[in-house]
Amino acid sequence: MWHSRSLHAVAAAVLTTLPLILATSSPKRGLCHVPSKKYPSDDKVWVNTPGSDLTWYYNYGASPSAAYRNTDLQFVPMLWGASTNDTGTIFLDTVTDLINGGTNITHVLAFNEPDGTTATGGADISPSVAAAAWIRQIEPLKDLGVKLGAPSVTGSSRGFTWLENWLKACNGGCNPDFNPVHWYGNFEGMASHIGQMMGTYPNQTVWVTEWGYANQGLEETQAFYNISTQWFDRMESITHYSYFGAFRSDVSNVGPNSAMLTQSGKLTDIGSWYLGGASTNNVPNGDAAQIAKFCGWVFVVLAVGVWVVL
Ligand SMILES: *[C@@H]1O[C@H](CO)[C@@H](O)[C@H](O)[C@H]1NC(C)=O
Ligand SMILES: *[C@@H]1O[C@H](CO)[C@@H](O)[C@H](O)[C@H]1NC(C)=O
Ligand SMILES: *[C@@H]1O[C@H](CO)[C@@H](O)[C@H](O)[C@H]1NC(C)=O
Ligand SMILES: *[C@@H]1O[C@H](CO)[C@@H](O)[C@H](O)[C@H]1NC(C)=O
């Protein structure tokens, strides 16, 4: 019942207000940092482009990226995963040390796609293991004034079920301030999904920490990018968003047209628009042979492997 009313309201808001404004920059924009081992200098594009409007970043890990130390990008640490054998407080200690050392940490993220499989980059953890890890490592940060992001579930309906089971397992011990959302699909589906998230958790703001319209033509991808960023900018309860994205088109695992860099590392139209700039007319190309080798997920999985061992 609620769902259809909310979807209707969302659709109406989109139709009546979107064409009026073409926002070209937004303080809500952040970088979902997917580093390239082959082209480490790509990291600089996001901070060295004059007028870049990005204000924050995350890298799926607890520690800042070396490339963004001493820049204006504010770091948002993430506790990527958890395991039954893991009983320490490495994440909590790392973030506390950063804060004590003067790093401005105002928000943290927790658990990357815990309801997803590791094959698609998910942390694949049970709600009860995640609840225990949250209570030990995330909830104490509230006392330091840090705002807590709920687990970043996938955009599928099982994400809602997972969140519900997680809150039950927490038994009152998990009190997130905002809800990160991931979405790969069309705009209508995304608006409905985010509407459902807002309806289910009305007291929490929304961050869209990964989103895109995977494997579409260039024009569809750009139209989707335009309408979604305009919508995010208008929605008061969507306070942060980070496009998935920040890699070269020939290594993209979401199709070449979603990438913000071309195969030769130049900003695509979407890449430039995201930074608040003009069209570049640089057309992204794919490379079928390279897609299987996409290094972003491998990096994340390796990083987590190391972290768990530590
Ligand atoms: C936890 O530790 C046990 C015993 O050392 C081991 O058999 C198991 O594979 C470990 N589980 C995980 C998720 O690491
Ligand atoms: C920390 O970051 C927040 C949010 O970006 C900002 O409002 C605040 O002024 C910053 N604090 C310091 C001490 O720089
Ligand atoms: C939201 O916050 C209000 C005011 O603090 C509270 O009365 C209400 O129970 C909260 N709703 C949920 C779903 O937590
Ligand atoms: C997207 O917006 C840009 C301006 O930011 C505009 O130049 C472009 O034509 C738009 N593309 C589509 C497909 O809506």
From TrEMBL:
GO terms for biological process: fungal-type cell wall polysaccharide metabolic process. Residues 40-274 form the Asl1-like glycosyl hydrolase catalytic domain. InterPro entries: ASL1 (IPR053183), Asl1_glyco_hydro_catalytic (IPR024655), GH (IPR017853). It holds the Pfam family Glyco_hydro_cc. Gene3D superfamilies: Glycosidases (3.20.20.80). Keywords: Hydrolase, Signal. One of its GO terms (molecular function) is hydrolase activity. GO terms for cellular component: fungal-type cell wall. Residues 1-23 form the signal peptide. This is Glycoside hydrolase family 128 protein.
